[in-house]
Specification:
It is a single chain. By secondary structure, this protein is mainly beta. It has no helices and twelve strands. It has a six-stranded mixed sheet, with no helix packed on it. A four-stranded antiparallel sheet has the order 1-3-8-7, with no helix packed on it. It has a two-stranded antiparallel sheet with strand order 10-11. The protein is globular, with a radius of gyration of 13 Å.
Length: about 120
């Protein structure tokens, strides 16, 4: 079972930037990809971004052009660079170990979750 440890959350003003990190241990990258989900208060957890084993990234429409996902295979670490942050980006961000396309055409995590890291964007 892979273990995920996240870091990098915090408080930032609107328009600012943060970078999240997720270090994986216990297994190398999955056949599909690692990535990020987020959950705002009172809302369901939603897909943010994933990067496949071949390096191809996928993003939710709400973060395209502002967020960039990348990885360091040697370190088994995935990063999420978040720029031009908005108050609606405020959420707990969860690293996910094995993101795949779901039957409904969205994305789902079939592997482990990280503990979550809080991102708060003030207006």
């Amino acid at each position: 079972q892979v273990q995920l440890v996240e870091s990098g959350g915090g408080l930032v003003q609107a328009g600012g930037s943060l970078r999240l990190s997720c270090a994986a241990s216990g297994r190398t990258f999955s056949s599909f990809g690692m990535g990020w989900f987020r959950q705002a208060p009172g809302k369901e957890r939603e897909f943010v971004a994933t990067i496949r084993w071949n390096g191809i990234p996928y993003y939710a429409d709400s973060v395209k052009g502002r967020f960039t996902i990348s990885r360091d295979s040697a370190k088994n670490t995935v990063y999420l660079q978040m720029n031009s942050l908005k108050p609606e980006d405020t959420a707990v961000y969860y690293c996910a170990a094995d993101i795949r396309r779901s039957g409904s055409g969205g994305y789902e995590n079939t592997g482990s979750w990280g503990q979550g890291t809080q991102v708060t964007v003030s207006s």
